[in-house]
Amino acid sequence: MPHAMNTTEIFLIAMTIIFTVPYFIWRVGKTDYWAPLVVVQIITGILLGPGILGAFFPDYYAFVFNPAVVTALNGIAWWAVMLFVFIAGVELDLSKAWRYKRESGITAGLALGVPLAFGCAAGLGMLMFDGWMGPQGMPWQFVLGVGMSCAVTALPILILLMEKLEILRQPIGQRILRYASLDDIAIWGVLALILLDWDRVGRQGMFLVGFAAASYLYRKLMTAIPERDRWYVALVWLAICGFAGDWSGLHYMVGAFLAGAVTDSDWFNQEDMDKLRHHVLLVIMPVFFLSTGLRTNWDVGGTMVFVAAAVLLVASVSGKLAGVHLAGRILKWEKGEASIIGWLLQTKALIMIIFANVLLDKQIITSETFTALLLMAVASTMLTVPVVAPKLEKLREVIFRSK
Asked: For residues 236 and 285, what is the distance between their CA atoms, to the nearest angstrom?
């Protein structure tokens, strides 16, 4: 009798696809200039989702991504994204932002506020049509959620792209990190506001009070133990904060970010932390990208989803550029700097996708809106290096000639 595949075997087929297909496309297609491996993994997740693979090969899709396999993949994806968000929180360095508070405050405020306004306008337009707002969402939550999605800067991806452009350790790169760090905090603050649940406001208050008290004890413990033990304690802390955040109704990713935000990066060897971020991206985040792709939907019509994505992309990029150019005028930056900084700060993949996942989990947006936001995030990230690289080269030539 032929052997009937069990869930474990089908799960391993899915894992083989997750790691093979994007790597093959990235390596053979040599896409690194305009689409880093992370972006290719996100795109592959979309292609393997119900809107593409499921539409053309429904039987194959149903066989590989059956409910039992998807449940297993989701468990890995939850832990992967919690680790990633935790690391993003740990790597926040607000001391330099405080040292240059006027410049950082003006730039971060305008870089976030203008695209937020543009995105909210796009969200108001989407409300005029059915199929975009989720069943549990209120209009203000939907509009603010879409607006913030347009304003997000993905700090971890920004770091990767600046490393590629060889400006991460240069003064302009450090400035950009300051602006992005302030915006990162604002993003999670707005998300907490959107998720504020009046039916569970008591729980949320208990969580915040309990978190403040527990953070004090956690920080005392971490400074008293050797570094080798801090890694284990940090993981326990992450799991507890994620659980408490989800229990309160704020979502486990809010808990994960807060867990990282109160963790000092200098408690750990920086090289080890860099390796951890790299290994999380390499080993388990591809599962999150695939699980994200499985949530895409085109039920309002593929054309409308692409139209919405295009509108959101225009609102996002134009808003970010307008805000940063305005900051450049106020602060009297050198010619060309505002354009470079604006394009780098509009990098969206990962953090925006995480943000949109939370909105989808809470049914504030529909899977169609999620798909449009996902397409916008991928497009904005793919535009960054091809647009910034020649601008950066031109700026370097101007600086060289001035010397």
From this structure: 20
Q: Is the pLDDT of residue 121 over 80?
A: yes
Judged against a pLDDT cut of 80, whether residue 297 lies above it is answered with: no
For 36-76, what is each residue's pLDDT tens digit?
888 888 888 888 888 778 888 888 888 998 999 999 999 99
pTM over the 0.85 mark: no
**Rounded Cα distance, 350 and 36, in Å:** 12
